[in-house]
Amino acid sequence: MDSNKRPENMERITTAELAEAFIEEQVKAIREQVKDGKVLLALSGGVDSSVVAALLIKAIGRNLVSVHVNHGFLRKGEPEQVIEVFRNQLNANLIYVDAADRFLDKVAGVSDPEQKRHIIGEEFIKVFDEEAAKLEGIHFLAQGTIYPDILESEKGIKAHHNVGGLPEEMNMELVEPVKLLFKDEVRVVGKALGLPDNMVYRQPFPGPGLAVRCPGAITRDRLEAVRESDAILREEFAKNGLAGKVWQYFTVVPDFKSTGIKNGKRTFDWPCIIRAINTTDVMEVTVEHLSEELIDTLVTRITTEVEGINRVLIDYTPKPPATVEYE
Ligand code: XMP
Questions:
Q1: What percent of the chain has pLDDT above 90?
Q2: Which CATH number, 3.40.50.720, 3.40.50.2300, 3.40.50.10490, 3.40.50.620, labels domain 16-200?
Q3: How much is the pTM?
Q4: Does 16-200 match 219-314 in CATH topology?
Q5: Is the CB of 324 within 6 Å of ligand 1?
Q6: What are the beta bridge partners of residue 319?
Q7: Which of 144, 176, 244, 269 has the most CB within a 10 Å radius?
Q8: 170 alpha carbon – ligand 1 mean position (Å)
Q9: Alpha-carbon gap, residue 150 to 162, rounded angstroms
């Protein structure tokens, strides 16, 4: 049987009972697979890797070594929050690696989307390999791969960093307990595992992070514009009761400039694109229509507070024909 194929008779996990049964089954499977071995986990702090971390902590406790890599493409305040929740509150065996400069140097000048994803994915694996080498005796690598990642990678739509790409010489066996689940099921499992709501209902975030929202060759200044505008968008969504209600929302700063006027002077700056969408299974998405008042606030705040932005655009395209992310 192809272990990357969801069995046709597999029931959709929609209730606490079904989640409990899944957890029990996975805890058993993880223990059988890893025995007394140590497992290294790429803990991004997103829903998928957080649920995998909680499952593994339940199954093997301190033998799970979680590594949080700050690749420089995380959202504002995110590395700090991961440390707070996992190290301070959940007492996880957590290693924090600040690799921002290393990743930014690697993708400098690279404009092809698939190449960017591959470089970031490869660098991730290198960082984990280095951490594993320092730790000694780690033979397993856990990943937060979910079913849409597998389906879309198979169709060649996108090369997700967390599917395949593991160099054979790395000599690590994969542990992917949620790889047959859809996103909504991962959340039900997370809730049943007792993870806090702000983690379980957190919007999804791609592995390569803000790198895919800074289309083309990434520069530090444009990346900062993405990070700052994203922080403003999240703040305004929270204020307006939309956080946790809208499935995913973010900003994109494309690599082209247009003319504008700021403080009576001509500017030549980037536009900032806002994308807010809803879905249940990520295969198809619909757009969230924003109120005129919220749009006005976002336009004012983003153009005045974010360096390098002189225009705000809204992307009202569903999936298909567009994908969620721009790259
Ligand atoms: P697309 O752009 O494929 O996005 O329509 C579907 C969902 O997947 C997220 N996404 C990723 N998640 N690693 C991930 O774990 C990735 O490389 C990746 N790329 C996209 C995206 O944010 C959306 O929720």
A1: 75
A2: 3.40.50.620
A3: 0.81
A4: no
A5: yes
A6: 285
A7: 144
A8: 25
A9: 9
Closest ligand 1 atom to 208 CA: 17
Query: What mean pLDDT do residues 114-127 have?
Result: 94
Residue position matching structure tokens 């806090």? 196
208 lines ligand 1 (CB under 6 A): yes
User: Ligand 1 within 6 A of 204 CB?
Assistant: yes
**Domain extents for the chain?**
16-200, 219-314
Q: Locate 174 and state its tokens.
A: 């994969």
107 in Cβ contact with 149 (< 8 Å): no
pLDDT at 198 over 90: no
Atom of ligand 1 nearest to the CA of 144: 15
Query: Cα(274) to centroid of ligand 1, in Å?
Result: 16
Q: Residue 86 burial by CB count (10 A; 0-12/13-18/19+): exposed, middle or buried?
A: buried
Mutate to test the pocket of ligand 1, among 186, 324, 326 (most ligand atoms within 8 A of CB): 324
Q: What number does CATH give the domain 219-314? A: 3.30.300.10
Structure tokens at 245: 């209600």
Distance CA 22, CA 13 (A): 8
CB atoms within 10 A of CB 324: 16
* Concatenated DSSP letters of 140-159: EEE----HHHHHHHHTTS--
Give the single-character DSSP code of 246: B
Cβ–ligand 1 contact at 323 (below 6 Å):
yes
How remote is the CA of residue 168 from the centroid of ligand 1, in Å?
A: 25
The pLDDT value given to residue 110 = 98
CB 166 within 8 A of CB 140: no
Q: Give 285 Cα–ligand 1 centroid separation in angstroms.
A: 12
